[in-house]
Design brief:
By secondary structure, the protein is mostly helical. Helix content is 63%, strand content 4%.
């Protein structure tokens, strides 16, 4: 059964329209010979840009693969879907549904670090190395250090759309529930049979029974395609911001 279904998937992959685009891998636009004070920015940019491109491209590829599996799974009964989910689909879908938060966090981290370093070009001797430890960097740091750079405002808007409330609601808050509670199943099965609620104001406690349905591949693919578009916009904004960094750094170099 596994070999047969996998062959079906490979055939479906060939005929499933590709939705999205792959992020580029680019070298920075700085001169080959650069003062040592800018090496941290150069090395961080090289690593961060590559890894962010990798992450977004993975999400794009996984979404395309899930679209192919969707076409294979559509006519199957629940038992057949269970076998397919267990062997192939659930691991891929689980990783894909967690990736938007990963991409958003990596963009925030990279923005905070690169803007912090690039601010030396603006502040000169007034610049201080006051960035918090890596484990403490959150959106507030990206705001703080990115604010002086004009492209950051559009980047911020795009970042806020990645894995936003609409995505969380549509996917049953999968990422958060998967890591901290019990998430919806993929394709078949139910979870959260009993839910506990506390009424605001009165503090009255009640219990609900029934469970939540699994996430369909049709829903997952549609939601991930939307998230991919937000990721592309965020990465485009990130690249524009980096170009502004490069101009400012070049402006500090001796003729």
């Amino acid at each position: 059964m596994s070999t047969y279904r996998y062959r079906q998937y490979r055939n479906a992959l060939k005929s499933t329209p590709f939705v999205g685009r792959y992020m580029p891998y680019e070298k920075d636009g700085l001169p080959d010979s650069i003062p040592f004070e800018w090496m941290a920015w150069v090395e961080m940019h090289q690593e961060f840009s590559r890894e962010i491109s990798n992450s977004i491209n993975e999400l794009t590829r996984f979404t395309h693969h899930l679209a192919a599996w969707r076409n294979v799974a559509a006519p199957l009964n629940d038992q057949q879907k269970f076998q397919l989910a267990h062997e192939f689909i659930s691991p891929l879908a689980t990783l894909a549904l967690n990736l938007p938060y990963v991409i958003r966090s990596r963009l925030i981290f990279a923005t905070a670090h690169l803007c912090h370093q690039a601010n030396k070009a603006r502040e000169g001797l007034k610049w201080t190395d006051d960035l918090p430890l890596d484990s403490e960097i959150v959106f507030a740091q990206a705001d703080q250090y990115g604010k002086p750079w004009k492209p950051y405002s559009k980047l911020k808007v795009a970042l806020e759309r990645i894995g936003d409330k609409a995505f969380q609601v549509a996917t049953g808050d999968f990422r958060n529930a998967y890591n901290h509670r019990f998430s919806p199943r993929i394709l078949v099965g139910q979870t959260q049979i009993v839910t506990r609620k506390v009424e605001k104001g009165t503090g009255k406690v009640s219990y609900g029974y029934g469970g939540i349905d699994p996430l369909s591949l049709d829903l997952i693919v549609k939601q991930l395609e939307v998230v991919c578009e937000h990721c592309y916009k965020a990465f485009d904004g990130f690249r524009k911001m980096v170009k502004e960094h490069e101009k400012a750094i070049i402006g500090t170099l001796s003729p």
